[in-house]
């Protein structure tokens, strides 16, 4: 028996049903979340095999990728989207799966509602046909995105087959400086590692900066693990985690809670445990970040200039192609660049803290005339909190509107598409070519940077607009 | 679902010497609305193949008649981003059976293996040789031998071995499917399920 283990090893090893020699592990899945886009072919697969869903009580369905963010009470206009939504509802009903569709009080982005209702729990294995499933690692769960063949596998057998990833720990001590949010910490890490720097690894985030973060902040960090290539990222659960989880609808109660806590309290990395790779950064050096290229690794402190092609890792051809798409030049400053759109939302930054941060900047200011702003809560629960906390009043007073929950302009599957050539400051997770609409150009940033851009109409350092406040 | 067996593939290759090709380029999100696995090849690299008025972008490699074949060769970190299996489906549906790169994103690699497209990871040097050879002469053929885990540039005879675990190799050689394997150990899974704490 091995003496010391990492957090990741503890959770992984306790879920291995079967080991295949020179092959993957068969891993038991505690929670499976499905949405309308990556599940229809998987349901079709089990239908063709004439087999049931093995554990419908461990599977949860919500509609999010394809849904409109205005007039959700009306029929969905796009026939293809409407059909996908209908298929999800039919499949959920046929197989006895909880379904929170459009208009349901619990509807929202899959990675926002999972934690909100206590489906997400420490020490669980959680999968979903979506790469940002890594979000749930904030609770000390092993959570990662899977393809549709694997969705079918989990529906059919509650297991998937995965080679065990290597272990990486990223340590960051120090405090977040003024104007710095968990999003900036994550964009900083990705800018250091590149988009493939953690491929093949499962990451544990450790150190003061993560300990100090709220659960929402930890979710933002873990959410972006995939953007450096990692399968997932996780943070050891602590009192903050248990406090967040307690009393939610799907959280264990009474004696079951005590039993769960007995397990959860073992979930930390043993002192002498070995990682395959370990990185350490000084958190106090992290600035508000912004991206300038077409992958999330192309980011920098907002006051810096775009690097020269000769100074970056990887091929100059790819780098120059990227800058050409963005219509930027090497050596450009980002500050002051006029922008057209602002998107606040997504599974990365669509939680209540993100709206609080955004409101803290726009309060007492007005939306710039040249900016179209889409403010999209991650769920109805977030939407309700925005209203109850008086944030909606601040937003309306400043000339903004609030839309209805969904993935929205993060991937632009619905009508929320940034037009070709337009420049958007977006709190989402990907700045790939055309991600927010064909020909659209995306700058990834925090809710504070997005708010500063929304009221000034250009890329602006939020610290210039901040008074005495603590970033969320 | 079960898929074609993969043994030895000899084919010309289509070179795409760009790094970090993400799955949003391979298949943009607006084409993920189908509920069956049909027709995704039509939209493979949609926004690199077509202008916004749907005319062809003549300089893109898939639109150049001289390049064709069942092997797609991409730059480092191929398939990063979204977990959408539709990207692998689009690659398959277009007619590719093998993707060669010096580095693959995890989920894309797994998705390919699950549908019968072989991801072959080679060294950066060998990748460059393939790019150079195919661009100089598009009729250059590659041989991918799964049993021997070897890829050969037939024009020069240079070859390199590649990794794949025995389980997946056996699946691909025989067209076996993971779900059949898992259903065979269903009893073990049920027993395990009863003992899980969550």
Automatic annotation (TrEMBL), chain A:
[4Fe-4S] cluster binds at residues 347, 407, 410. It comes from the Bacteria. Pfam families: Aconitase. Its cofactor is [4Fe-4S] cluster. InterPro entries: 3-IsopropMal_deHydase_lsu (IPR004430), Acnase/IPM_dHydase_lsu_aba_1/3 (IPR015931), Acoase/IPM_deHydtase_lsu_aba (IPR001030), Aconitase_4Fe-4S_BS (IPR018136), Aconitase_4Fe-4S_dom (IPR036008), IPM_dehydratase_rel_enz (IPR050067), IPMI_cat (IPR033941). Binds 1 [4Fe-4S] cluster per subunit. Pathway: Amino-acid biosynthesis; L-leucine biosynthesis; L-leucine from 3-methyl-2-oxobutanoate: step 2/4. GO terms for biological process: L-leucine biosynthetic process. GO terms for molecular function: 3-isopropylmalate dehydratase activity; 4 iron, 4 sulfur cluster binding; metal ion binding. The keyword Mitochondrion does not apply. It is an enzyme of class 4 (lyase). The keyword Cell wall biogenesis/degradation does not apply. SUPFAM superfamilies: Aconitase iron-sulfur domain. Residues 9-457 form the Aconitase/3-isopropylmalate dehydratase large subunit alpha/beta/alpha domain. It catalyses: (2R,3S)-3-isopropylmalate = (2S)-2-isopropylmalate. Keywords: 4Fe-4S, Amino-acid biosynthesis, Branched-chain amino acid biosynthesis, Iron, Iron-sulfur, Leucine biosynthesis, Lyase, Metal-binding. Its EC number is 4.2.1.33. HAMAP family: LeuC_type1 (MF_01026). Heterodimer of LeuC and LeuD. PANTHER family: 3-ISOPROPYLMALATE DEHYDRATASE (PTHR43822:SF9), HOMOACONITASE, MITOCHONDRIAL-RELATED (PTHR43822). Belongs to the aconitase/IPM isomerase family. LeuC type 1 subfamily. Catalyzes the isomerization between 2-isopropylmalate and 3-isopropylmalate, via the formation of 2-isopropylmaleate. This is 3-isopropylmalate dehydratase large subunit. The gene is leuC.
Automatic annotation (TrEMBL), chain B:
Its EC number is 4.2.1.33. Catalyzes the isomerization between 2-isopropylmalate and 3-isopropylmalate, via the formation of 2-isopropylmaleate. It catalyses: (2R,3S)-3-isopropylmalate = (2S)-2-isopropylmalate. Keywords: Amino-acid biosynthesis, Branched-chain amino acid biosynthesis, Leucine biosynthesis, Lyase. This is 3-isopropylmalate dehydratase small subunit. Heterodimer of LeuC and LeuD. Pathway: Amino-acid biosynthesis; L-leucine biosynthesis; L-leucine from 3-methyl-2-oxobutanoate: step 2/4. Coiled coil: none annotated. The keyword Transmembrane helix does not apply. Residues 6-124 form the Aconitase A/isopropylmalate dehydratase small subunit swivel domain. One of its GO terms (molecular function) is 3-isopropylmalate dehydratase activity. One of its GO terms (biological process) is L-leucine biosynthetic process. It is an enzyme of class 4 (lyase).
């Amino acid at each position: 028996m091995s003496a010391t283990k990492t957090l990741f090893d503890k959770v992984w090893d306790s879920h291995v049903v079967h080991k295949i020699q020179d092959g993957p592990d068969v891993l038991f899945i505690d929670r499976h979340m499905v949405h309308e886009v990556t599940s229809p072919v998987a349901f079709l697969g089990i239908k063709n095999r004439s087999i049931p869903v093995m554990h419908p009580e461990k599977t949860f369905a919500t509609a999010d990728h394809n849904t409109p963010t205005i007039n959700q009470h009306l029929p969905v206009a796009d026939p293809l989207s409407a059909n996908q939504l209908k298929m999800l509802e039919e499949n959920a009903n046929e197989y006895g799966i909880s379904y929170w569709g459009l208009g349901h009080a619990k509807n929202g982005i899959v990675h926002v509602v999972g934690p909100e209702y206590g489906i997400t729990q420490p020490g669980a294995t959680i999968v979903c046909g979506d790469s940002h499933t890594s979000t749930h690692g904030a609770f000390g769960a092993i959570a990662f995105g899977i393809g549709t063949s694997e969705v079918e596998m989990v529906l059919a057998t509650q297991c998937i087959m995965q080679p065990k990833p290597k272990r990486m720990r990223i340590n960051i001590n120090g405090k977040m400086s003024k104007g710095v949010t968990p999003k900036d910490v994550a964009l900083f890490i990705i800018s250091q590692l590149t988009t493939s720097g953690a491929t093949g690894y499962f990451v544990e985030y450790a150190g003061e900066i993560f300990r100090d973060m709220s659960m929402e902040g930890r979710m933002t960090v873990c959410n972006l693990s995939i953007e450096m290539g990692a399968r997932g990222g996780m943070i050891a659960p602590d009192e903050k985690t248990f406090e967040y989880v307690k009393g939610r609808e799907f959280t264990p109660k009474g004696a079951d809670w005590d039993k769960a806590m007995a397990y959860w309290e073992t979930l930390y990395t043993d002192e002498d445990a070995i990682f395959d790779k370990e990185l350490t950064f000084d958190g106090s050096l992290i600035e508000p970040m912004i991206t300038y290229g077409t992958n999330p690794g192309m980011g920098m402190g907002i006051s810096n200039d775009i690097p020269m092609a000769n100074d970056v890792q990887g091929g100059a051809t790819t780098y120059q192609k990227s800058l050409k798409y963005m219509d930027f030049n090497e050596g450009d400053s980002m500050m002051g660049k006029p922008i057209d759109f602002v998107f606040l939302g997504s599974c990365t930054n669509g939680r209540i803290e993100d709206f609080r941060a955004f409101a803290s900047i726009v309060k007492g200011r007005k939306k710039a005339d040249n900016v179209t702003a889409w403010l999209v809560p991650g769920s109805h629960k977030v939407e309700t909190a925005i209203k109850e906390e008086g944030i909606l009043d601040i937003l309306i007073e400043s000339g903004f509107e609030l839309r209805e929950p969904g993935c929205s302009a993060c991937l632009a599957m619905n009508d929320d598409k940034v037009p070709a050539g337009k420049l958007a400051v977006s709190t989402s997770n990907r700045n790939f070519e055309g991600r927010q609409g064909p020909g659209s150009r995306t700058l990834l940033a925090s809710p504070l940077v997005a708010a500063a851009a929304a009221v000034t109409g250009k890329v602006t350092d939020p610290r210039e607009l901040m008074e005495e406040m603590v970033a969320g | 679902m079960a898929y074609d067996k993969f043994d030895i593939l000899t084919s010309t290759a289509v070179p795409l010497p760009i790094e970090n090709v993400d799955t949003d380029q391979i298949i943009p999100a607006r084409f993920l609305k189908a509920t069956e696995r049909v027709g995704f090849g039509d939209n493979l690299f949609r926004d690199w193949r077509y202008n916004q008025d749907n005319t062809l972008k003549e300089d893109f490699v898939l639109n150049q008649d001289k390049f064709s074949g069942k092997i797609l060769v991409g730059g480092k970190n191929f398939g990063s981003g979204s977990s959408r299996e539709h990207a692998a489906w689009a690659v398959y549906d277009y007619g590719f059976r093998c993707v060669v790169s010096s580095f693959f994103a995890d989920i894309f690699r797994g998705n390919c293996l699950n549908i019968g497209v072989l991801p072959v990871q080679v060294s950066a040097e060998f990748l460059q040789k393939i790019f150079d050879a195919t661009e100089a002469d598009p009729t250059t053929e590659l041989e991918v031998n799964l049993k021997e885990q070897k890829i050969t540039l037939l024009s020069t005879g240079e070859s390199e071995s590649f990794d794949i675990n025995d389980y997946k190799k056996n699946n691909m050689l025989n067209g076996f499917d993971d779900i059949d394997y898992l259903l065979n150990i269903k009893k073990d899974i049920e027993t395990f399920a009863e003992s899980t704490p969550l």
